Each structure stands twice: as C-alpha cells, then as structure tokens.
Amino acid sequence: MNTTAHTAADASSAPVDPRAFRTFGEFYPFYLSEHANRTCRRLHFVGSSLALGCLLMLLLSGNAWWLVPGVLVGYAFAWIGHFGFEKNKPASFKRPLYSFMGDWVMYWDILRGRIAF
Question: With the CA atoms of 95, 98, 103 and 108 taken in that order, what torsion angle do they form, in degrees rounded to the nearest 10?
C-alpha cells in the first residue's frame, strides 16, 4: 500500500475549519462544497428569493418589520437544507460574514447558470 496516497486521502477527509480561510476567495470553494446537494441549493435559492421579496416590501412600505420575516425565511430555508438534506452544519456558525457573502455569490451563480439549480 502506498502510504503517501493514504496520508493524502486522510488529510483530504479531515474536517475543515471555516475559520482557517483568510480570504473570501479561499472560502468560496469550501462554501460550494458544503452545498453539493441540489435540494439544499434550491432551498437556499428559495429562501434568498423570499428574503429579497421581504426587502422589496420593506422598501415599498417603509415598514422595518419586513426585516423580521426576511431574516427568518432566509435562514430557515438554508438551515432546513443543511440539516435535512446536506447533513452538515451551516458555515454561518463559524464564518457568518463569508457565509452571507457566499449565499449571494451562489445565488448569482445559480441565476447565471454557473451552478445547477
């Protein structure tokens, strides 16, 4: 058995700490790997779309209470995707800003057809 290959495989299967990434550019490939499940990505997309709808309602109505359902639907759909389908813990627990940025970059990538919906 080739021990070098075995060691490399062990290293690649080790859990990754999202806090280890120094830049968003380093983090985003990890973020995408945490969203490999198509249903999880779809739930993220729906939750983000609903959150945008709530933001639009806030802007149209001037009622700041639209922030509450916007945040709730955005995170609820994402967390259902992670816990129910992806079977992992959202990176937002350890890298909230990068995860928030990743949500919107992935959303845009889905809209442009760069990531399968």
Answer: -170
